[in-house]
Amino acid sequence: MSLDELVGIRYVITCMSIEQITASLVVLLLLAFIAEPISRLLRLPYSSVLVMIGFLASEIAVMSGIDTGLRADNFHDLIFYVFIPVLVFESAYKINKKLLVQNIVPVIVLAVMGLLLTAAIAAIGLYFGIAHPVGFPLIAALLTGAILAATDPAAVVSRLREIGAPDRLSVLLEGESLFNDATAIVLFGLFISMTLSLENSLTASAVIIEFLKIFLGGLVLGVIAGLVVGMMAKVAGPA
What we know:
The chain has 239 residues and is an all-alpha fold. The chain is built from ten helices and no strands.
């Protein structure tokens, strides 16, 4: 994380007083609490109800003149370095590890080939669907396809559990979502470089190295960090 990214996150925190931060957290927890009975009442996925309530809450905050400190230049850092790690940790913690190891090959295939295929289909559909090469060129469609391809299956997985679907199906979906981020990041970065007219500096080997650095590098660092924390927990013993 660069110094500018740390400054961006710090700005979000310091823009609000401790009372405002505490009140915001309490309100968010309250909204998450009431979203569960609402989702049951409307028969909608819990995560979908959370999105709708969050959207309404953000609009109310804006109309009330509350400055949350979120700006175009720090929103990315907040999502990438704060929220995504929490979501990935929660999914990795709850997933069936034994089934994940048994199905690691199809999970990786879905996370790489499946995402590439999804991004290609989305990009082609958008490009020819909008049919405006000047206003929406092919590279814009490719960028949009790369963004849309990395989906989160939270709503689908919760629904599968409700209807009693096989655990293997849930593990395939959750496992794919854990690994597809690396593919999406490399793909998006590749298209951004092409957009900035840097395609002459791109080679197949550079793309492969970048993918392995993000995909395998993140995996190795995660395993090492997990082992270190596990050993520290064993040494510390029960509280």
